[in-house]
Amino acid sequence: METFESLVRAEFAPKNTFLNTASSGLLPARTVTALQGAALIRAEGRPLDPLFEDVEMSRAAFARLAGVPVTRVAAGASVSTHSGLVAASLPAGAEVLTAEDDFTSVVNPFHARGDLKVRMVALERLADSVRPGTALVAVSAAQSADGRIADLPALRAAATEHGARTYVDFSQAAGWLPVDAQSYDYTVSTTFKWLLGPHGAAFLVVPEDFGDLVPVLAGWVAGEVPWDSCYGPIAELAHSARRFDISPALFTYTGTRRSLELLEELGVDAVRTHDLALADRFRTGLADLGHAPLPAPGSPIVSVPGLGGRQPELSAAGIEVSNRAGNLRASFHLYNTVTDVDRILDALSH
Questions:
Q1: For the chain: N or C, fewer Cβ within 10 A?
Q2: Span 57-69, pLDDT tens digits
Q3: How many CA atoms lie within 13 A of 310 on its CB side?
């Protein structure tokens, strides 16, 4: 009988101490095998039907993870593309509320419009800052820089009270934190971090009635019958969120399907328990060394002020972390072990 540990060890064999999932996750063995198979399909000139099927299987797997019907999930390539779609739907002069220093891909498309009122406040003040006239609140569920988790229930309540829509990026949360996409107007997540997929896939969850979104990026795959929508304007858009799809990176979605299947086998709750135990062990060890990480309770992302400059020497020693604005950022995921935690603590003690 397979256990969490045995299943993880069968899929991952890192050659270093990899503590940088907040930048990009490791690929499972099954995903690597699928990517190789997809490349052979192209190289040998075989029909691409299995690769298009992988897009739909990936969409369905993400829908299960997000807790929504598959008809609400659009498949794309990046968070910034989906943010741009949401930004394009807003009327001129609309107020958008964001968190200070949130990830650029979430917030920049709203600034780029030039005719929106974008208001930035501290993450801790986000829910209290929703007011009459706020059209949209956009925020990451977990902050990329330091792992802080947004108070999403409070934000949802405030948005409901004032009639604002919500746009939540789960890129640093999906895979270890339960995703309740049903509770928000729009959610988005890239798949190459905690979801362990290749680069180039992202999912947007939209309301049943599509909200106010206009499929300005629609190409042939957004048609109700894609192969009948290859030439001229699309006569009939897909009746589901697929109307917001862009042409998929087929290899990427082939890999994404297998990565999402692995997470389903493991269970997000088990992954979360594993990840947080390691992050808490690291925080305790840091305190013993006299270092105080930035507060981010309940997060597998740990950011330590003043230690970012040690990233190059840690990398040279085979320990992969990030330097974010002078802070050392370590992130713990299912393939990490107690040995990994102890190794970075030992390196930082010297």
A1: N
A2: 999 999 999 999 9
A3: 19
| Among 195, 342, 333, 322, residue whose Cα is nearest residue 276 | 333
Distant-in-sequence, close-in-space partners of 310: CB < 8 Å, separation ≥ 6: 328, 348
pTM score, whole prediction: 0.96
* Phi, psi of 3, deg, nearest 5: -110, 170
Q: Which pLDDT belongs to residue 188?
A: 98
- Report the candidate in 274, 259, 250, 201 with the shortest Cα–Cα distance to residue 28: 259
Decide: 314 and 321 in contact? Cβ < 8 Å: yes
Q: Write down the H helix ranges in the chain.
A: 4-11, 29-43, 49-66, 79-88, 104-113, 126-129, 152-162, 250-266, 268-288, 311-316, 338-348
Residue with tokens 């206009």: 214
List, run by run, the mean pLDDT of 10-residue segments along the chain (350 residues).
91 97 98 98 98 98 98 98 98 98 98 97 98 98 98 98 98 97 98 98 97 95 96 97 97 98 97 98 98 97 97 98 96 98 97
The number of beta carbons lying within 10 Å of the beta carbon of residue 16 is 13
User: CB neighbours (10 Å) of residue 276?
Assistant: 17
* Tokens of residue 11, six digits: 């899929």
Q: What is the pLDDT of residue 299?
A: 98
Closest CA to 11 of 196, 136, 157, 151: 196
- Concatenating the DSSP letter of every residue in 41-78 gives HHHTT--SHHHHHHHHHHHHHHHHHHTS-GGGEEEES-
Alpha-carbon distance values, 249 to 54, 233, 242 (Å): 11, 22, 15
